[in-house]
Amino acid sequence: MPVKAIAKTSIARNGIGAYIVPCHRISLQYCNWGGSSTGLRELLKTGRLDKLASEKKGIFFDINKKNGHPTASFHYNNDTIKTVEIANLKPSEILAKIDEHSQRSGNDLFKFNHKVLSINDSVRGIWSPLHTPKSHRHKI
Amino acid sequence: MIKGTIHQTWSRSLGVVSRRSYHVPSINKALKTEYDTINDYGSYKNNVFTHRLPESTAQQSPSLVALHSRLNLPSKYSLSTLSQALNLNINDGLVNNFGLNTLGKNLLSYYVSEHLLVKYPRLPMPIHNVAVDSLMGHETLHEIGKIWGIQVDSSTKLDKYLSQESEFIKYGKLRFLSEQQKGEVKESGVHELSSQESKTKIDSSFISDEAQAYASAVRSIIGGLYTHTGEEATKKFIQDHILSRKLPLEEMFQFNQPTRELVRLCDKLNFAEPLEIRLIAETGRLSAHAIYVAGAFCGTEKLGEGIGSSIAEAKTRSVVNALMSYYLYSPLDSEGNAAKVPSDKDYKFEGIVGLGDVSI
Amino acid sequence: MTIIRIGSPQASRFLARSIYLHKGPRVTGLKKDPQEAFTTNTGYKYEKSENNLKYIKGFLQDKYAISDDLALQVLTHKSFNNGVMPYNEKLSAMGSKLANLFFAKYVTEGSTNNENNVNGKNLDVLGSPIAKELSGRMTMGLFARSNELNKVMFWNSYGHGLGFETSGEMKVSAQMMYALIGAVAFSHGKEVGEQFIREKLLGGRASVEDITVRLVSGETSSN
């Protein structure tokens, strides 16, 4: 055999070609009695959540009634579930939380202090001191 | 009745003396297929399935509707077909995704092969096959299925009853586990191989049933897109979701005897002058960390160049570089764009056809 | 026994050497005489001659014509002379995929009375033996033989005298057929490639469909 092959899987590039929202499911949990769920109950009553759900068609919303503080769980396509406390929040603040987390990728946030983050090779290539003419090379 | 092998008399009538007879697949008895005549394709019916999911039921499944719009599928694509694409079960009466899967597989293999054959016409066949797998193998399709947010229906009927889950939700989930498999208690860190999984086991790796099921669902969704919207839209979908992925081709090569291979290649290409590997530059042999630059030349043409910390390394790298730049060549059309593939509109043959690999 | 000098005048600076070229049975380490290596066991010499290409050219006619270089490549199998000449592997990779796709579409395109159809397409037929075998190797091999397309093929077998299947002729003929489809698709585009399958493979006197029906239902055709 002249050349052998090494199996590798291709790398997803969401947004090149097609874009799939990473958050596919949002579970909201509220309590019918507790005061900390007032904001979420308000949202459910006024139908503002229905409107949000119809705007974000690709996300499956499910609402559970359970005792305790209300929570919002975001299910992402990298198998992570992020649970956010929404106790004692105003309806608009809850909507802002949902809006923010539904746009996340599910990966942890990290500090990045460089200009470019890329999986591609540099287009310029790597500078080599050995490819300049002899007369221009660095002399020790 | 259908026989698994060619009948002897028939073989003789054609003048064939067959010793190792060709295996013709036999019909899958489990499907209880009925048909009028063998090539009356419209008459085939698998009686194991009783019905398709009614559209009205499918519309009530929030997970299915969400998947439909997450994938940006056209409204022509019916929810019942999408639900069928997610069903691998054979025994619950609902039509499963077998046909859609086959259709999707054929579409995918054509468009993926076409893309690779035109874009990288000189890829050696082993690399080509691995590249096809890299784009549409079960591992990749499993990943794509996950990215699409497809969930496995893993809760038993009892679980569903207890959690008061709507019965429609499962129609938007991937159904491949039997009721018994769902009920099995799982120990974390331990996975019992199913009979199907143990067949695929090589060393410590195996193809999980889940990966197979995801892959099948992704292929079926593509097949379903073809049945509802035709081939042009399917091609676009494949381009957007599959061919847009980054293919790490340069990491797929493993050379055993690169210099010998390059010599054979030059031979095959009828290069008049012999291959020579020459030293281009060096930092000096007595320098603290000597670096050499070697080039693979054919006459005055430089085929490749490599840097190494010894002459042998630099030479090998230069040869590998020459081989890679030959194998990964990608043709352009007269306007400088990537060459068109045969399924494109106004296709004109401007690329090249691979000549075949060299043997050592 | 001949001793000749090889190498073009321009390259002679490098390549002037005397080599013994061996004829007859293979001896390890000896270079084969190209004259002999480039001739098939049936006596056809590897070249772009009218004699070699007439069968597939006649089959393709002007409508699906391909260049002579491509035609010769279609006829050359990897096994011929150690794969030194351009061979048909890549062409048949394209052709087999196109054939599979075409026949999957072909069996589902007709009308159906199956109420489990998907948007009018009966997908239940796809797993059946006939749907699988329409683009199968045996069908393609037999088709190539009945249309005399495999009269001239450049390939090597470990036993040319063995049967159609055992010698590998069936496989090589099938690969040549796929390569032919692939070459038409490469030269004229996918649409013409599919039209070619429909017109030439399904429309002719011994159509692929008839061959497959006989193959799949073995005994019914034996009487």
UniProtKB/TrEMBL annotation, chain A:
Gene3D superfamilies: Glutaredoxin. Keywords: Mitochondrion, Ribonucleoprotein, Ribosomal protein. InterPro entries: Ribosomal_mL43 (IPR039927), Ribosomal_mL43/mS25/NADH_DH (IPR007741), Thioredoxin-like_sf (IPR036249). GO terms for biological process: cell redox homeostasis; mitochondrial translation. It is found in: Mitochondrion. Belongs to the mitochondrion-specific ribosomal protein mL43 family. This is Large ribosomal subunit protein mL43.
From TrEMBL, chain B:
One of its GO terms (biological process) is RNA processing. One of its GO terms (cellular component) is mitochondrion. PROSITE patterns: RNASE_3_2. The keyword RNA-binding applies. Coiled coil: none annotated. SMART domains: RIBOc. SUPFAM superfamilies: dsRNA-binding domain-like, RNase III domain-like. Keywords: RNA-binding. Residues 64-230 form the RNase III domain. CDD domains: DSRM_MRPL3_like, RIBOc. It holds the Pfam family Ribonuclease_3. It comes from the Eukaryota. GO terms for molecular function: double-stranded RNA binding; ribonuclease III activity; structural constituent of ribosome. The keyword Cell membrane does not apply. PANTHER family: LARGE RIBOSOMAL SUBUNIT PROTEIN ML44, RIBONUCLEASE III. This is Ribonuclease III.
From TrEMBL, chain C:
Transmembrane segments: none annotated. GO terms for cellular component: mitochondrial large ribosomal subunit. SUPFAM superfamilies: RNase III domain-like. InterPro entries: Ribosomal_mL57, RNase_III_dom, RNase_III_sf. One of its GO terms (molecular function) is structural constituent of ribosome. One of its GO terms (biological process) is RNA processing. Residues 68-202 form the RNase III domain. This is RNase III domain-containing protein.
